[in-house]
Structure formats: structure tokens, C-alpha cells
Write a structure and sequence with these properties.
Blueprint (H helix, E strand, L loop, with lengths): L20 H4 L3 E5 L11 H8 L5 E5 L5 E2 L2 E2 L13 E4 L3 H14 L3 E4 L9 H16 L3 E3 L6 E3 L22 E5 L2 H13 L4 E6 L8 H10 L5 E6 L5 H13 L4 E5 L4 H11 L6 H10 L3 E2 L3 H11 L10 E5 L2 H14 L8 H10 L9 E2 L3 H4 L1 H15 L3 E7 L8 H14 L4 E6 L3 H9 L3 E3 L2 H19 L20 H11 L6 E4 L2 H11 L3 E6 L12 E5 L2 H18 L7 E6 L5 E10 L3 E8 L3 H5 L2 E5 L4 H9 L18 H18 L3 E11 L6 E3 L2 E5 L4
Parallel strand pairs: 1-2, 1-5, 5-6, 6-7, 9-10, 9-11, 11-12, 12-13, 14-15, 14-16, 16-17, 17-18
Antiparallel strand pairs: 3-4, 8-10, 19-22, 20-21, 20-22, 23-24, 23-26, 24-25, 26-27, 26-28
Helix pairs in contact: 3-4, 6-7, 10-17, 11-17, 12-14, 14-15, 19-20, 22-23
């Protein structure tokens, strides 16, 4: 632990984010553009730090005043009598660039640049931002911003921020940290947290991210002892390597990350890009990356804070199940619906335990939800038994007790609270949640007893579900090391036949087929495979053959193959007159298979990303797909497949034979390894359909496209 007001010695730290210590936990800070007016941008940070007892040295830089807010001021950076760990830059335009250069020459290790008018504005601003970053990098100095609101670390009284939010109150001490690309929204999250009584110790806003990225901030928070729960707000992920490393570090440290990633819509994506001057990337891909590392995505501020509040208890069920005790049958139904929608299992109570509870109150409903009725409140000793039997016999990892206004009653709450406290103490490893309407004082009392308290039981269920996702992520074994092959791609986009040969060598077998230069070759190939067969036009210039009628199915004889051969050549000449035609592809037609689709897309931020979904036309209509960064193993591939809404089609739905899911997973993971090894020239892969036969019979590519980028 560092000394109060000081940063750790980075040489003693092994994590890659230690360089931010000087920025977030410094011993000294210079303020460039320091103001004597505590309401101005250059004055607020000084006033805040003095008010909150920052133990380090504050060094105001103002050439026009001998003192600033009672502190000795310096005429310039060069006049500083000591080298600051970090500096706040609150001067405009080119003066900010010069200040960063002067600070770097002085030996300062970090700058927090409030100044706006850079890459978020126009090309001239972007060029000025480039000069600012170059000046900092010349001296190995880190930059937060520009165009950022700053940060605070309440643990050391450090407030290099000009937000007005502190006028309504200081942070409540607690274990939540905020990382936000938006300054205004980051402080909105802090202020909303404060209003809800949640303790936020650290908040860092990144602005334009000319240097320090959101990922680096998350990574720093992930190892910071003062924070246990991480809230993040993102408009677009600019840099993937540090972002992924940060999420991995948070998971290894068992620190939950709840993230609000905006820009899902086309309009929202455009707004995010113009606001942050960053690459928004594909939202579905970002979503997949978050799922990969157990990040829970929040869609509203309320949801984010609900999850952060629940996570601050630091109980994360690994195999989450929900047991419910309620005094209202209607609430039990509502909670059951919410649990089903959220995917939280509510197993039925064991028969013996149900009988025991029936013996206590004959008209209770003890299945789960366990409706103890108002009688358990009338006879409070019954309530004790219902709590203990349900938690013990049910073995639920999470317990939700719905008491509505009874839990806040001045006559009943004092009688019920000891039983609630006793149950939690007897089963301390469970996540105990209470749904009551009560005064703030009574809510605090329940929280002191170890309960998470919500008025709305649906919000309680959603928070419980999130805790289970964190638990599963923390308990998951580290992924296997993936061996990425050396892949040599052809010079240009290959034909379907050549593409399938390339993929077959990578571990994705193709349907038996042959490229035929003549009609006699086509007939011979069909007879060797056995009828029926499929005929397809073969051309490197026709990637989507069905659009020109370039695929003919159910060819059951040699004569049918001859007619199809002539038809395909005629259609190609008519509908794709400039295409190079290399012949016709004859393939064995497979019956009784489930059509799936595999693919690879090159995301601008995260690189190659693999996809699996229902094949044929369904992939475009239903959009039932799952994504994951490449490469990954068979276990991760099978998890992707099982996450599909259409998975029952592979799992024997409606009397179908179970499909060869293992073969499908093997093909998907092989494709991910191929994509990872192929390098920058691979633009994409489309295997549609991949025909998945019954269990034990394999999966075969019936069509494939490999797109190669022209680097010339």
C-alpha cells in the first residue's frame, strides 16, 4: 500500500497498468492555468483538493499572481521548484501543447488535459492533438484527454476535476470505481450513485483518449486496492489489446465489471464516433468480447447501479439458483416470470421439505416460490422456520425474501428482522436479497445485517442474475492455449472449390465434390458420388451463386447433370457476363442434415471474429447468431452453439435425431484458428451452409467463400 497521498513505486508492480499510478495516486500536482477563482475551470480542482485534504503538494502555475487560493504560485513550468508527478492543463489551444512539452522537459510523468478543441472538433484540432501527444511521448509522459473532465480519487483526497457535481456533496466512501469516456456522464453516474447512498471511491474520465484509453483505466482500477466493483461507460472501444488485458485482469482479481456500451443504433453509433473521435466498431462484436470476460452489460443507469450495488456485497454464486419466500402469491408469480425471463433457475423444493412446511401452515404454497402467506407474519416463529427450511433444504445459492410494506412496518419489522439476520448468519455464503418498502433508516438496518434491499422485486431478480454471471466467470477455468497454424493464403480470392480445399486442410471438411471442366467430367463425377448431386457454377468472380441461379439441386441422373451443366453456363453468360468461368462444381447432395452457417469477419478493433448461426436464408432473416474473438477451442465453440435460440434444432427437437454438435464445434474452432493464423489479408470467410449430420456422422461444408484483400 502506498503512503497516504502517494503513489506506489511502479518498479514493485508487475501489472501493465502501473504507469497510471502517478496520474491517479500522486504525491504532487501542478495546475497549469491555475485560477484564484474557485468557480473557474483552473480554480475548482485546487479548491476541491484543499477542501478534501489532499496530502500531496499543490503547485499552481499562473504568471500573473504571486499566490493562488493562498498557495504560492509559479510564473511558469520551468520555475517550479520541484518536479510534479502529474499536472492539470487548463489553458487553451496551442498553450496546452506548449505546456505539455514544458512539463515533459521538466520530468513530469503525467498530464490531465482539460482543454477542448482537439480531435473532437475538426482536422485542425486533430493535428494539434497529434502534436500534443508527440510532445508527451518524447518525454515518456502519459496524457489523460484532452477534452476530459478529469478524475477523482477520494481515497487520497485527489480531485483534478472541474465538475460542479461536488457542490451537492462529496463521494461516499465505498468500493465502486467508475471509468468513463464521457466526462459529463461519468460524473452523472457518480452523482446518481451518491444519491442512492453508494460509495464511489474513484472516477476517471478519458475524453478524446489521445493516449490513455478506457481499457487502461479499467486495468488500473482492476488492481487498485480501494476498488472492488468497476462501472464503465463506453461510446467506442479505440484500442483492443489493453481493453482485453484489463477485462482479463479484472476477472482474475474477481472484480466484477458492469458496462454501459452505447451506440447500438446507427444514429447512436454515429453520435458516439463524432463525440469521442474513436472507432465504434461492431456493437455485436463488442458485446461478444464483454461476454467472453464475464462483463455484464447494462442498458440503463438504474440497471448499472442496481448491479454495482449488489456486487458490492462480493458474493457471486457460481451455479446460481433462486429460492423465493413471499407473503404474496401474486408477487411470487411476478418473481417467477422475471426469473424465467432473466434465465435464473428456480428449482422446486424437495418433497420432504414441502411436506414439512405444509405441516407448519397447511394453506401455504411451498414449491418455490414459497408462499408462507400472511400467517407467517401473524405467527412470526413460523417465518423463522420457513426461512431456515427453504435455505437449508432447497440449497439455493440466492435467496429473495418478499415482505413488501410488512418489512417496513413499525410493529412487524422489529419482530421479523432478528429472524432475517439469523438466517443470513447461518448461511453466509448465500446471496440474501430483501424486497421491502421501508424508510431509509430501516433499509440501512437491513443492509447492515448483510441484505441487499430493493423495493422492486423484478430489479432484485435482474441483479441476482448478474451476480450469477459474475460467479460463473470468476469460477471458469482459464482457456486452453490455442495453437494457431501458419496459414498461406492465395494471391487473390479463390474459387469455391479451392476455398473448400483450403478450409478442409484447416479442419473443416467439405461435402464430396469435384471441379469439372467439361460436361463429361461432370457426369463422371456425379456417377462416382452417387445420385442425387448438386451442380454449381464455378467462378472466382461469382461469390453469391444463388443470386444468379448458379446452383441446381436434386440432380438424379446423368441426363439431368448434362442439362444442368448447360443451364449453368447459359445463366452465367447472361447474368454475369464479365465473370471468369472455370467450369462446374459437382457435389454429393446430403439429405437429413441441419443447415448451419459459419463465418469470419475482420472487426476494425478486435480483429478476426468468428460467427455461427442457422444456415441457408435463416441467418439473414432470424439473425440468430453468436460471435467470439478468434482463436478459441472446442469448448468455447460448443458454448456459442448452445447459446443460439435455434439450438433445439440440433438437439433433437420434435423427434429429430440429435445432430453432431461435436463435429460442428470442431469445425467452428478450426475456422477460428485458421482466421487467427491467416493475417491481415483475410477479409472474411463464409461457410453457408455447413451441413450437420446426425450425431457421430460429421459436419461438411456445402458452400464456402474466402475473401482476400487486395493489398496492391
Amino acid at each position: 500500500m502506498p503512503a497516504e497521498g502517494g503513489h506506489q513505486n511502479t518498479a514493485s508492480r508487475s501489472d501493465p497498468f502501473a504507469a497510471l499510478d502517478a496520474m491517479v495516486r500522486p504525491r504532487s500536482v501542478a495546475v497549469i492555468g491555475a485560477s484564484d477563482d474557485a468557480t473557474r475551470i483552473g480554480g475548482r480542482p485546487i479548491a476541491y483538493m484543499m477542501n478534501q485534504g489532499f496530502a500531496g503538494t499543490i503547485l499552481p502555475v499562473n504568471p500573473n499572481r504571486p499566490t493562488v487560493q493562498g498557495l504560492p504560485a509559479f510564473a511558469s513550468v520551468s520555475a517550479l521548484t520541484q518536479v510534479p508527478d502529474v499536472a492539470i492543463v487548463a489553458v487553451p489551444g496551442e498553450a496546452a501543447v506548449q505546456a505539455v512539452a514544458d512539463l515533459g522537459a521538466k520530468g513530469c510523468r503525467a498530464a490531465i488535459v482539460f482543454t477542448a478543441g482537439f480531435a473532437e472538433v475538426d482536422e485542425a484540432g486533430a493535428a494539434m492533438q497529434d502534436r500534443l501527444v508527440a510532445a508527451a511521448r518524447q518525454h515518456r509522459m502519459r496524457v489523460l484527454g484532452p477534452n476530459c473532465l478529469g478524475l477523482f480519487n477520494a481515497a487520497v483526497g485527489f480531485y483534478p476535476m472541474f465538475s460542479t457535481s461536488f457542490e451537492q456533496g462529496w463521494p461516499i466512501r465505498g468500493n465502486i470505481g467508475i471509468a468513463s469516456q464521457s466526462g459529463a456522464y461519468g460524473t452523472h453516474l457518480f452523482a446518481t450513485s451518491r444519491a442512492r447512498g453508494l460509495g464511489t471511491t474513484v472516477c476517471v474520465t478519458t475524453g478524446n483518449e489521445s493516449d490513455v484509453s478506457l481499457g487502461e483505466v479499467i486495468g488500473w482500477i482492476a488492481q487498485a486496492p480501494e476498488v472492488e466493483v468497476i462501472c464503465a461507460y463506453a461510446e467506442g472501444i479505440r484500442e483492443s489489446r489493453q481493453f482485453i488485458a484489463a477485462l482479463d485482469l479484472a476477472r482474475r482479481h474477481r472484480k466484477p465489471v458492469v458496462m454501459m456500451k452505447v451506440g447500438r443504433s446507427e444514429l447512436g453509433g454515429h453520435a458516439a464516433k463524432s463525440h469521442t473521435a474513436s472507432i465504434a466498431g461492431d456493437d455485436a462484436v463488442t458485446d461478444a468480447v464483454m461476454r467472453e470476460f464475464g462483463v455484464v452489460r447494462a442498458s440503463t443507469t438504474e440497471q448499472m447501479l442496481d448491479i454495482a450495488y449488489a456486487a458490492s456485497r462480493r458474493i457471486y454464486p457460481v451455479k446460481n439458483t433462486l429460492g423465493v419466500i413471499t407473503v404474496s402469491g401474486g408477487a411470487g408469480v411476478l418473481i417467477s416470470d422475471a426469473a424465467e425471463a432473466a434465465g435464473v433457475p428456480m428449482p422446486e423444493m424437495p418433497a420432504e421439505a414441502q411436506a414439512k412446511l405444509k405441516g407448519l401452515i397447511s394453506f401455504s404454497a411451498p414449491r418455490n416460490p414459497v408462499d408462507c402467506t400472511a400467517q407467517a407474519v401473524n405467527q412470526t416463529e413460523m417465518f423463522e422456520h420457513f426461512l431456515e427450511v427453504t435455505a437449508d433444504a432447497g440449497g439455493y445459492q440466492s435467496m429473495l425474501v418478499f415482505l413488501t410494506q410488512t418489512g417496513g412496518s413499525t410493529t412487524m419489522a422489529p419482530k421479523l428482522r432478528p429472524y432475517l439476520k439469523q438466517a443470513r448468519e447461518k448461511f453466509p455464503d448465500r446471496l440474501w436479497v430483501l424486497s421491502v418498502i421501508a424508510s431509509a433508516e430501516k433499509v440501512r438496518a437491513y443492509e447492515e445485517d448483510g441484505y441487499i434491499v430493493f423495493e422492486d422485486p423484478t430489479r432484485a431478480v435482474n441483479a441476482i442474475e448478474a451476480m450469477g454471471r459474475f460467479g460463473a466467470a470468476f469460477a471458469a477455468p482459464p482457456p486452453d492455449d490455442i495453437v494457431v497454424p501458419d496459414v498461406t493464403l492465395p494471391a487473390t480470392t479463390p474459387t469455391e472449390a479451392e476455398g473448400k480445399r483450403i478450409l478442409a486442410a484447416a479442419g473443416i471438411p467439405a461435402v464430396p465434390e469435384k471441379a469439372c471442366a467439361s460436361v463429361e467430367d461432370a457426369v463422371a463425377a456425379a456417377e462416382s458420388f452417387g445420385f442425387p448431386v448438386v451442380a454449381k457454377i464455378l467462378s472466382p468472380d461469382i461469390l453469391h451463386k444463388s443470386e444468379i441461379g448458379g446452383v441446381i439441386l436434386d440432380l438424379g441422373s446423368a441426363e439431368a447433370v448434362r442439362e444442368a451443366h448447360a443451364t449453368l453456363l447459359s445463366r452465367a453468360a447472361e447474368r454475369a457476363p464479365g465473370a471468369r468461368i472455370e467450369g462446374v462444381l459437382i457435389a454429393k447432395q446430403i439429405k437429413g442434415a441441419v443447415e448451419m452457417a459459419l463465418g469470419v469477419a475482420k472487426d476494425p478493433v478486435f480483429g478476426p471474429v468468428a460467427m455461427v448461426g442457422l444456415g441457408g436464408v435463416f441467418i439473414e432473416i432470424l439473425k440468430d447468431v453468436s460471435f467470439r474473438r478468434c482463436p478459441f477451442g472446442d469448448a468455447e465453440a460448443e458454448a456459442m452453439i448452445r447459446s443460439l435460440k435455434g439450438f433445439p434444432l440440433l438437439d433433437g427437437a420434435r423427434g429429430r435425431p440429435k445432430a453432431d454438435v461435436a463435429a460442428l464445434a470442431s469445425a467452428l474452432s478450426a475456422l477460428s484458428r485458421f482466421a487467427a493464423g491467416a493475417g491481415e489479408r483475410l477479409a472474411g470467410v463464409d461457410v453457408n451452409p455447413l451441413l450437420v449430420l446426425p450425431a457421430g456422422q460429421g459436419a461438411f461444408a456445402a458452400d464456402a467463400v474466402i475473401e482476400i484483400e487486395d493489398t496492391h
